[in-house]
Amino acid sequence: MKKLHQLISEKESELQNLEDSLGLGFPIVEQAKMTQISHLRLELEDLRQIEKSIQLNDNQKIVLEWLKYPLNDIPNRFAKNYFAYITCLFLGQAPDKVLKAYQELSPEQQLEVLAAFAEWGMKEVAE
Asked: Long-range contacts of range 45-51, CB-CB < 8 Å, 24 or more positions apart?
């Protein structure tokens, strides 16, 4: 999610720079800038829509945070075994607060948590 937010910030900055530079060139250059501005606005609208659609609710955040750091609640032999974390959750081997939050998630919300967990895991592996 941070990468998406960073991309949106970069596109907003690029758009602002283009808008600030309008009126400083030949008509053909200005026309090209206007086209680029139009495309950037559309792209930003799409990116913001994506960002908005993947915001996690409170129950999703509870589950995600536990998936990230479950080692206080499950044996250390599962360290860095991300499938084990998900299995423990599925088998009910998580704190009551986490299980309650998990049980209140729709199948779509569960998938959103898994997507966020996968994104987080990929960053962890990269570091």
From this structure: 47/4, 47/7, 47/8, 47/11, 48/8, 50/4, 51/1, 51/4, 51/5, 51/8
Return d(Cα 63, Cα 103) in angstroms, integer: 10
pLDDT in tens, 65-91: 888 875 555 555 555 677 877 888 888
HSE of 43, CA atoms in CB hemisphere, 13 A: 15
Q: What is the pTM of this model?
A: 0.56
66-104 b/e (C-beta count within 10 Å ≥ 16 → b) = bbeebeeebeeeeeeebebbeebbeeebbeeebbebbee
Tokens for 97?
Answer: 């607060």
Distance of CA 115 to CAs 36, 51, 96, Å?
32, 13, 23
Residue 55, pLDDT > 90, answer no
